[in-house]
Write a structure and sequence with these properties.
11 helices, three-stranded parallel sheet, six-stranded parallel sheet, alpha/beta
Length: about 280
């Protein structure tokens, strides 16, 4: 039986392929183009990036969102009691995803509101985690901001998620990075948060509002404005029942639609078909 090749292009190059960059990156672009032609199936995590990839490779690509498995969905959350509120961020710790404005917003909120940060620094932003620690200390937030570092397993990560109330997923308002511009579906953060019954706080961008805010899974804010962040978090603080309802609605959506099994089904069907999608060009 011939070996079938599935090419999952998770992070797309931002520069025009082959036109800029080092010799190594031009070689990577050539290899990417070559593999795209020879693979039986190409997958991208975002519809717009799949379209751009298809134009580059001159072939169709499937879109598969980075959703959790149904087995990873947590139990229904208990009603929120008390006046505490736990915000959560997990992922790469970089200024565009976790800006210092989050700490500034926290300083404007009651002391019962805390932030848990799970993740890791990237090579391009070495020292940013320490910068956040210093900023938290400067704002008097040492007891309200917990930096847990990288969590080694998915099970432990999701267990931590289930102990929080609101998940933060911020994207920059303006960027030339194709991955940042077209992150809907590619970012696993909101799906992980919803799987654990958390309400969402996302950037006030059209596609994020449409996918997550309009259906009632959370709120949007301007991540560059501490007052905007604080206003949204304060709404959650004052409406605990609605916050839990948002999280439960999202949890149900993960169970029925936004899960790995349902997302990957078309790819599995194509790979198991007697005749694989045609390989175009060479």
């Amino acid at each position: 039986t011939p070996l079938k090749v599935l090419y999952h292009d998770h992070d797309s190059p931002s520069a025009a392929e082959g036109d800029t960059g080092s010799v190594f990156m031009r070689w990577v672009a050539w290899a990417r183009h070559r593999l795209a032609h020879r693979a039986d199936l190409c997958i991208l995590p975002n519809e717009q990036r799949a379209k751009i990839f298809g134009e580059m490779a001159r072939r169709e690509a499937l879109t598969v969102w980075n959703c959790p498995a149904t087995s990873e969905v947590g139990p229904p959350r208990l009603p929120h009691t008390g006046n505490t509120l736990r915000l959560l961020y997990h992922g790469s710790i970089v200024p565009s995803r976790l800006p210092t404005t989050v700490l500034e917003a926290l300083a404007q909120l009651p002391p019962e509101v805390s932030l848990t940060v799970i993740g890791y620094e990237t090579s391009g932003h070495a020292g940013y985690l320490e910068h956040l620690r210093l900023q938290a200390r400067h704002l008097g937030l040492e007891q309200r901001v917990m930096f847990l570092g990288a969590i080694p397993t998915r099970h432990e990560l999701l267990t931590q998620c289930q102990m929080c109330d609101i998940g933060l997923t911020f994207m920059p308002n303006e960027t030339q990075d194709i991955n940042m511009r077209y992150m809907i579906g590619a970012s696993n953060k909101p799906f992980d948060y919803l799987a654990c019954g958390l309400a969402l706080l996302v950037s006030d961008l059209p596609d994020w509002r449409e996918l997550y805010v309009a259906p009632g899974y959370g709120l949007a804010c301007n991540p560059n404005d501490p007052a905007s962040i604080a206003e949204a978090v304060n709404w959650f603080l004052e409406h605990p029942a609605q916050m839990r309802h948002m999280g439960e609605q999202g949890r149900q959506q993960i169970l029925h639609e936004w899960n790995y099994e349902r997302q990957f089904a078309p790819a599995l069907h194509a790979l198991n078909a007697p005749v694989c999608p045609s390989r175009r060009g060479s």
